[in-house]
Amino acid sequence: MSKTLVLKGSKKLLNAWAFYDWANSVYSLVISSAVFPIFYGALFRVAGIEKVTVFGGEIARAPLISYTTSLAFICIAIITPLISGVADYLGNKKIFMKFFCYLGGFSCIGLYWFSLDNIYIGLLCYFFGLVGFWVSFALNNSYLPDVAFPKQQDAVSAKGFSLGYIGSVILLIFNLAMVMRPELFGISTDESGSAEIKAMKYSFITVGIWWILFAQYSFYYLPAGYRKEGKRTNIILNGFRELKLVWHQLGNQTKLKRYLSAFFVYSMAVQTVMLIATYFGEEEIAWGTDSERTTGLIISILVIQLVAIFGATVTARASNFFGNIKTLIVINALWVIICIYAYFVKTPTDFYAAAGCVGLVMGGIQALSRSTYSKLLPETKDTTSFFSFYDVAEKIGIIIGTFLYGIIAQLTGSMRSSIIFLGLFFLVGMFLLVRVKEIQKPL
What we know:
By secondary structure, the protein is mostly helical. 79% of the residues lie in helices and 2% in strands. The protein contains 15 helices and two strands. Helix 7 runs antiparallel to helix 11. The protein is globular and about 60 Å long. Residues 1-6 have low confidence and may be disordered.
């Protein structure tokens, strides 16, 4: 009997799987949500410019990072099925997970050298950080049905997100201390004349080290992966072939197909909110001074993370009592209300309140979406392919969501109009979920 079968459902294995969220969530918080967006804007403000020359043409800072992000997610959507196909046929899922973990971690460290003079190197590190995070995260998600029985999946999925929020908050508080009081850490001014900017650069290094170091615990206990039986031909393209097979299997899985349709729609909005929340706060809220803006935005992100710990736990318990689908419908309804409220947010106090509401539902909808999909999967050992399909759908949703968000903001001249548009995604997702029959509780 293999090690995977022996350990499935054991506390040690479940903890190892959930602990990867502790390791990599510092990227999504410090790099994606908190410090990097502030650092990126500060570079342009200190230089007194709004545009840089890239590939022979001038481009403003917002479109530049937006296009880089979109390109990264296109790459992620292509890479994920390629990797899943190879991993399923060779049974070496963990090797790929390690590779993309290290790619992301070292790219975070490389962001230390991000500057307007080294814009190409900086954008490459930002690009590969995104790729490393999302592909390794997708591979870790695909382990869920391998390591946990159906009755364990809601709780362990929520535990993973909760660990991620706790770990990322700990590091962000440390980074916040560095940024606000750099002299206490012996950090002097850099070439821009700002000790705060240099402290932000050091925070990128701490993210890379944290991610790589703590991931070792998960790598030690997670199984190598299942090796799919059959001929080893066209392994590289098998990932796309597997996606095609998954698509055909959905024809016989009505409940799963309907759930994926709903997930695709509301996930567009969830991920877009996560990616643009800090930029919205920086542009639309009247903070006062630059220092107050930096402090306020980071505190807002901390509020989201701390409340999300509570939200993920409450959601897991609610799903156990009311059922996964009913709970997801309620969460989507709450998101609609939050989007309407965000349209009227103007003061820092209003923004903090909105951040608390977002945190309450953000962790819950992510954790419950992942475990609900896992429960709906047919009996199969090709979990990587099914979760690859899940992640590709999510990434395509991100590309569409962020693109539409930018278009609406550009046409209307306000990010507030885009927030209302995102609320419509949640509304449609809620009605699509009504079509999904409730999941029977596992024995």
